[in-house]
Amino acid sequence: MPPLTERAFEELYGHALRPLWAYVRRVIGNAADADEVVQEAFCRVLCADISSLSLDEQRRYVFRVASHVVVDRWRRSKRERSWLRHVEPERAVAPEPPADDLVKVFEMLKPRERALLWLAYVEQDSHEEIATALGVRRSSVKVLLARARARLRDLLTARQTRT
User: Fold this and answer.
1) Is 104 in the same domain as 119?
2) Which of 40, 86, 120, 146 has the smallest C-beta neighbourhood within 10 Å, fewest atoms?
3) Distance of CA 29 to the CA centre of its chain
4) How many CA atoms lie within 13 A of 69 on its CB side?
């Protein structure tokens, strides 16, 4: 089967761009990096054979591709940091004081926790869709979501006790 037609791609792009960018932005925490990830995801979709899928299935597919791009970036970043530790002595960096809004608290979560919570509660994806998007087992999603919710609750509680 051929890849998406130009018209079908435009429809998918119009349907998925805003929610996809918002998802990636929240997971990564940086608008410029989110732009790059979204661009990469749509470029990969151009070559994919997804023309037989419904628009909603195509949308889930592009979310899954974007999640894979994010994971690839995390892994690459982790390898680079590991390599740099051997090249330069590690410098202590003072943590940024937490802001008083939920966005800053959300950014304090680990990227995978942000991705889980976003896909589950903003995108309202099923556990199976989340598992596919993040490359984890379906049976792990419930546990990972519970841990992410608990961590968010702890961060919010800690923030509340400071004020």
Assistant:
1) yes
2) 86
3) 9
4) 26
